[in-house]
């Protein structure tokens, strides 16, 4: 690649020849050798007299104790000393230009959930996020969430002309609130174009894990912040769950059966901390439930092998089509209502009982559950996992493989990419107790009678059909393609 600058400088006290080429690679040769890629390894820089201080954040194979640790990014400041002002100016202009070319954000709204995870959201912001944003020269407005669903209100109020992105320092819950807030605005088409970033600071960090795993980086707050700083984005599919005129926009998953039962009912073991999920999963497997019900779905090409073609009429919950003639969506004045109802001729159906149904938009639903290894951020499909029957020993074995994604190879698991999905949930099979929850992005969407908790505040009702459709690449996330 063509050199744009070459200079004799002193770098951290060593004489070297530094070169910067057109692809943004900064190299040094002489008393020490090395290189960095400006857009990829540099948080920012500052000028100190005729010196430039480079704030580097390069990937290293970290060594911990005696053995090798996990790869991760390490911050190091390097000082380049120039002999004159002219050279200093040339170099700082060239570095700035290289950073500008990669489309870095300049102004961010940062939403921090102080109660995320073990109540560490604020600490994560001050120790990992803020120092990097400052070093990158990004101006930011930080808002702490002060009540349940405050993030949704903030997303509804945000002025898109004032920010280049909105970043959540939280778990997945606040992120999903921001998505729903943006999509419920009258100007949702403009608002949803604003890139969304996620810094893991909650108990459920499935989106952060999916994004960081995609770029081969560890799931930590500093690595996630640097991804936002680098500014590269990609589209993200958005699923919309609908029941009559009630809707909920989702970017992670919908689940019914075993996983939803564990997620919600294990709350009663919260005093156990992280162990509660494992302990409650074991309890549920020993006393395995199956649920009656029916699912319908439109498979992606190549996934037509399961279920049977459905030739009947599915009554829909579709709203009126926009009078402006938007052909892809149904648009109403008060926000986005989801993609158009898809033709019923391609539906397939499958009758219960089911052990579990798991509908995923991204590969990871938490940092250690690789639910849907084939899920892509914007392929326009949801990855549906179905389990109808499974011996208890095989189920236990299978759940042990969920961290690696190995569970999908089991003969008891069906893995189907779908364009649309419909769930008609019913109560427990072979039991007088009803029970059952539909869980979406970590929130109870609907619960049946005999279930834990109060159903009166649930978003939807348990029993009537819940329809899920997906719109390809509707949202944008800070994540390199
Ligand atoms: N100040 C607050 N008071 C009460 N609830 C809040 C506050 N701030 C945020 N919340 C709520 O906390 C919930 C969870 O947030 P988030 O996803 O960031 O954390 P989490 O630790 O991953 O969540 P969870 O505890 O559900 O696993 C959201 O529903 C959000 O509305």
TrEMBL record:
Q: Which residues form a coiled coil?
A: none
User: Which Pfam families does the record cross-reference, listed alphabetically?
Assistant: DAGK_cat, YegS_C
The keyword Magnesium is annotated on this UniProt entry: no
EC number of the protein: 2.7.1.91
Gene Ontology CC: one annotated term: vacuolar membrane
Q: Where in the cell is it found?
A: Vacuole membrane
What keywords are annotated for this sequence in UniProt? ATP-binding, Kinase, Membrane, Nucleotide-binding, Transferase
Primary location group: membrane
- Positions of the DAGKc domain: 103-245
User: GO molecular function of the protein, one example?
Assistant: sphingosine kinase activity
> The organism sits in which domain of life?
Eukaryota
User: A biological process (GO) annotation for this entry?
Assistant: sphingosine biosynthetic process
What is this entry's stated membrane topology? Peripheral membrane protein
The keyword ATP-binding is assigned to this record: yes
Q: What protein name applies here?
A: sphingosine kinase
């Amino acid at each position: 690649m063509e050199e744009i600058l070459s200079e004799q400088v002193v770098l951290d006290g060593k004489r070297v020849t530094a070169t910067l080429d057109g692809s943004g690679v900064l190299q040094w040769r002489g008393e020490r050798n090395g290189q960095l890629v400006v857009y990829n390894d540099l948080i920012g820089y500052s000028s100190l007299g005729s010196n430039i201080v480079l704030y580097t954040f390069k990937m290293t194979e970290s060594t911990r104790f005696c053995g090798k640790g996990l790869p991760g990014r390490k911050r190091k400041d390097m000082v380049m000393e120039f002999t004159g002002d002219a050279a200093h100016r040339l170099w700082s202009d060239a570095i700035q230009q290289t950073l500008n070319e990669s489309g870095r954000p300049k102004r961010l709204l940062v939403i921090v959930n102080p109660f995320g995870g073990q109540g560490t959201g604020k600490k994560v912001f001050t120790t990992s996020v803020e120092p990097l944003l400052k070093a990158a020269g990004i101006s930011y407005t930080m808002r702490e969430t002060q009540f349940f669903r405050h993030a949704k209100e903030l997303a509804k109020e945000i002025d898109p002309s004032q920010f280049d992105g909105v970043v959540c320092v939280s778990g997945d819950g606040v992120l999903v609130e921001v998505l729903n807030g943006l999509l419920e605005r009258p100007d949702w088409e403009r608002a949803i174009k604003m890139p969304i970033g996620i810094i893991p600071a909650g108990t459920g960090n499935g989106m952060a894990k999916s994004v960081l795993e995609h770029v081969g980086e560890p799931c930590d707050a500093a690595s996630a912040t640097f991804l936002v700083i680098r500014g590269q984005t990609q589209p993200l599919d958005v699923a919309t769950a609908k029941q009559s005129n009630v809707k909920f926009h989702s970017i992670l998953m919908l689940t019914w059966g075993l996983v939803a039962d564990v997620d919600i009912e294990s709350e009663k073991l919260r005093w156990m901390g992280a162990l509660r999920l494992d302990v409650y999963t074991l309890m549920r497997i020993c006393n395995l439930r199956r649920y009656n019900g029916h699912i319908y779905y439109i498979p992606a090409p190549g996934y037509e092998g399961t279920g049977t073609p459905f030739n009947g009429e599915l009554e829909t919950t579709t709203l009126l089509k926009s009078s402006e003639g938007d052909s892809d969506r149904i648009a109403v004045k008060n926000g986005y209502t989801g993609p158009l109802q898809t033709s019923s001729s391609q539906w397939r159906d499958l009758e219960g009982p089911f052990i579990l149904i798991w509908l995923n938009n991204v590969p990871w639903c938490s940092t250690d559950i690789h639910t849907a290894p084939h899920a892509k951020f914007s392929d326009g499909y949801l990855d549906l996992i179905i389990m109808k029957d499974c011996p208890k020993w095989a189920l236990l074995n299978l759940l042990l493989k969920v961290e690696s994604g190995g569970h999908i190879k089991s003969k008891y698991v069906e893995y189907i990419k779908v364009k649309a999905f419909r769930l008609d949930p019913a109560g427990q099979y072979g039991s007088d107790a009803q029970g059952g929850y539909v869980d979406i992005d970590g929130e109870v969407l609907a619960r049946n009678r005999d279930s834990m908790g109060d159903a009166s505040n649930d978003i939807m009702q348990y029993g009537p059909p819940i329809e899920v459709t997906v719109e390809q690449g509707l949202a944008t996330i800070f994540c390199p393609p």
